[in-house]
Amino acid sequence: MDLGSYFLAAIDLYCERLDASFWSEPVNALSNLAFIAAALWARRALHQRGLHARDLHWLTLSMASIGVCSFAFHTVGQRWAAWLDSISILVFLLGFAATWTQRVLGWPWRRAWLAAPIAGSFIGVGTIALMQVPATWMRTEVAWYISTWLAIALTTVFTPRMASTGLAMRAWMWGCTALFTLALGLRQIDLLVCPWWPLGTHAGWHLSNGLVTALALRALMAATPGRPR
Questions:
Q1: What is residue 22's three-state secondary structure?
Q2: Upper half-sphere CA count for residue 64 (Cβ side, 13 Å)
Q3: For the chain, domain boundaries
Q4: Residues 141, 85: Cα–Cα separation, whole Å
Q5: Phi, psi at residue 227, to the nearest 5°?
Q6: How far apart are alpha carbons 209 and 127 in whole angstroms?
Q7: Could you tell me if 96 and 59 are in contact, meaning their C-beta atoms sit under 8 angstroms apart?
Q8: Pairwise CA distance, residues 61 & 75, whole Å
């Protein structure tokens, strides 16, 4: 298979998609507005709190990019868009890891950025390892994200209950962990409920993860002192 054929190959993984045509997953596609809404909320919240940190504003753009890339994937249903979708998610995760290390642990940026490749290696190696374990009951598309769930859970455990600003922080991360657990469950049962619910549950994966990104940003906001406007 040549490179062009590889990237233009149709992908059908979800209940709602019945064929390879354009716009065959309208609900899945439109549910990505959750990421756009989360990004807009985060930018407004940053402005209201007088938080002008570039790293946090960059993360809001990363949140929006997930929505755009996933919308493209669920619209065209081709492998090139699936790669964009996956890369946009990874970029947000790595950006969050570095920002969390700087904001929460207080590391200077000259060292905090190392959290990105460390997190990427943890997720990558964990995913490869998990894929070697036979688990006929779990969808492959869910197994891909188990190491990500573990990374989020570990981050939650190591997040202080209160930030140095005096604001609650760990509670927001527990919210992230709980919602991502729900999202994985919805991803798992998408094809199982297909005979009774033709739209499937993948849209719930998007809605839950849009909230995950919003709560993650809220935790970082708690760790960031505001500046008067």
A1: coil
A2: 13
A3: 28-222
A4: 13
A5: -120, 140
A6: 19
A7: yes
A8: 21
CATH of domain 28-222: 1.20.1070
**Cβ(88)–Cβ(35) under 8 Å?**
no
CA distances from 191 to 28, 160, 199, 216, 220 (A): 14, 38, 10, 29, 35
| Encoded tokens for 181 | 């657990």
- State how far the Cα of 197 lies from the Cα of 115, in Å rounded to an integer: 41
Tokens of 29: 């596609």
The model scores a pTM over 0.90: yes
Alpha helices, DSSP H, located in the chain: 3-8, 26-30, 33-48, 54-76, 79-103, 109-112, 115-131, 140-143, 146-158, 170-189, 202-222
AA letter at 105: L
pLDDT of residue 1: 61
Select from 95, 21, 31 the least CA-distant residue to 67: 31
Per-residue pLDDT tens over the stretch 116-150: 999 999 999 988 888 777 767 788 888 889 999 99
Q: Is-contact 38 213, C-beta < 8 A?
A: yes
The string of pLDDT tens digits covering residues 47-61 is 999 888 999 999 999
Q: What is the pLDDT of residues 170-213, one digit of tens each?
A: 999 999 999 999 999 999 999 999 999 999 999 999 999 999 99
